[in-house]
Task: structure prediction
Amino acid sequence: MGAKIKKGDLVQVITGASAKRGGDLGKQGKVLAVFPEQNRVLVEGVNVITKHTKVGQTERGSKTGGIEHVEAPLHVSNVAVVDPETKKPTRVGFRLETVTRDGVEKTVRVRYAKASGKAL
Result:
């Protein structure tokens, strides 16, 4: 079966601590990467962690490393795809549609938002 969340989708965090408590609940962001083996997704601006990297030097002599802020992967069950019409989280479904291209009819699987029926 196809993936319900793909790279480039707009998703919203639906579980976890609220923003008042320093969490990411309700935040929306674009999916940067999908890791299907671990059932995880990397979302832009969500689940930001502080990473300490060893300080070094480049060939030109500039300093590298130090404290960096990077996104960490979230479990796929903690995010939901945002409906393009209502801008609210929705479930994703699949349907078969016939497409005519160059005089040839083809049946294609299409992902759609269950709340509004719009294709994703």
Observations:
- The longest strand covers residues 48-57.
- The chain has a mean pLDDT of 89.
- The CA atoms of residues 15 and 78 lie 5 Å apart.
- The domain at 10-89 is CATH 2.30.30.30 (SH3 type barrels.).
